[in-house]
Structure formats: C-alpha cells, structure tokens
Specification:
mainly alpha, 11 helices, 2 strands
Length: 244
C-alpha cells in the first residue's frame, strides 16, 4: 500500500502456523489488536486503507487455505467509509469467534477419538512395538536430513519441520486413523519433483514409513499384502500395463 505499512506483512505471514484454523485465529487476533489500538472511529478512518487491505488479505488467505469465509460487502459512495469500517471490524470479530469454536470442537473430537481407542470402545490401527519405534526413528532421521539439506528453501524447510514435529507429537501405538502419516507421500512427491536423485535419502525413509503404515493398515483391515507405493519405489509400470 502506498505510504502505509501492510498489517499482514511478509514476516507475519511466514510465522503463521500450518494449520489453517490456528493460522486464521492468529490473523483475527492480530487484526483486533490493531483495531483496539485506536481511541476513536475518526482515528481508524484515517487509516481506512489499511482496513481495506486486511479484507483483501482475508480473501486471499481463505482462498489459499480452502476456507469458506463470508466476507463483508463493501459499499461504494461518499460517506460509506464509516459503515464499511464497522462491517470490517464486525467480520473479524465474528470470524475469530467461529475459529475458536471450531478449535474447541476439534480438541473435544480428537480427545474423544483418542480415549475411545484407549478405553477399548473404538476401532483403531495398532503398530507393533518394533514398527512404532522404527517409525519414530525414521521421522527423526527425516527431520535431521531436512535440517541439514541445502536443497530445501528456508521457508519450505521450516514448514516441513513443523509438520513433522506435529506428526511425531500425535503419533501413538494405537491410532483411530493414519491420515497424518499418509500425508507424507505428498511431501515426498514434491521432493522428488524438485530434487530428483538428490531427494533419495529423504524419500527412502518416507517410503519405509509408509510401508509400515501399509502393513499396519492391512493387518487392521484383514487385507493380505500391502498397497504398492510406486511413487517412492520408482516403479515405472504404467496404470494400464499388464503385469506378468
């Protein structure tokens, strides 16, 4: 913005959590602290352009994170700024409350699933002692590889490390779903696409993690064998090609 510093600058964006709900809550809190810093509506109106910029950011953020957000309609015409300003503040207040409610419900739902498994009333996937220890070890190795790698950009490296830290914190021998672990295949695919053979140490370890996940899932669902992981094993067989 000409002559004014954007509220959501590059430094703020880089520090946002990966989780879209947590990130959205931080966005709302940051805006409301800014808004509370003014003593009067007249003071706010002198920085009205910043308020409009914040709505533009909210729109881009919601689009990037796949969130369904009802943005306020901005009125045109003389004398509309005060009305628009109130609507913008009201939007961030309401959105912030919705995100807090979502976070609260997610915590309750996650706790319910975890305790159902621990109390034996819920269906779960269960790692063997050996497999669980091996997955933990492999994740530690992946984290170390990423930390020391010269191929990942710093921002990408920071996001991956945060994701692995969260995964490791939530990993248990008994789990109601394995979605977080399956999500690693996307990271491996990006690494392969960007770095080719240089990504091998990284993708080899993720491939082993996912083989353990396959085995654990197959056992829980009484399926013989494991699912193929062609992306990570380098199998070039075409989908329509008959296997001999």
């Amino acid at each position: 913005m000409k002559g004014k510093r954007a509220l959501f600058d590059e430094g703020f964006i880089e520090e946002l959590p990966e989780d879209p709900i947590l990130a959205g809550r931080r966005v709302c809190e940051h805006f409301l602290r800014f808004d509370d810093g003014f003593k009067s509506t007249e003071e706010k109106l002198r920085t009205f352009e910043v308020y409009l910029d914040c709505i533009g950011f909210a729109r881009a953020f919601a689009e990037a994170k796949g969130l369904d957000v009802a943005l306020p309609e901005i009125e045109a015409g003389l004398g509309a700024d005060r009305w628009n300003l109130n609507k913008i503040v009201e939007f961030f207040e309401k959105w912030g409350k919705q995100l807090v409610a979502t976070m609260t419900n997610n915590v309750i739902d996650n706790a319910w699933e975890v305790y159902r498994v621990k109390l034996g009333t819920g269906w779960c996937y269960q790692f063997s002692e050996k497999d669980f220890d091996r997955v933990q070890h492999l994740i530690n190795e992946v984290r170390e590889l990423i930390s020391k790698s010269k191929y990942f950009e710093e921002d990408h490296k920071r996001r991956l490390l945060k994701r692995l830290e969260k995964l490791q914190a939530e990993l248990n021998k008994k789990m109601s779903n394995l979605d977080m672990l399956w999500g690693l295949i996307g990271d491996a695919g990006v690494a392969l696409g960007k770095f080719g053979k240089n990504a091998k140490p990284f993708t080899d370890r993720i491939g082993e993690i996912l083989q353990i996940v396959c085995r654990t899932q197959a056992k829980a669902e009484d399926v013989k064998g494991t699912l193929p992981l062609r992306l990570l094993t380098g199998d070039q067989t075409e989908p329509n090609e008959k296997e001999s």
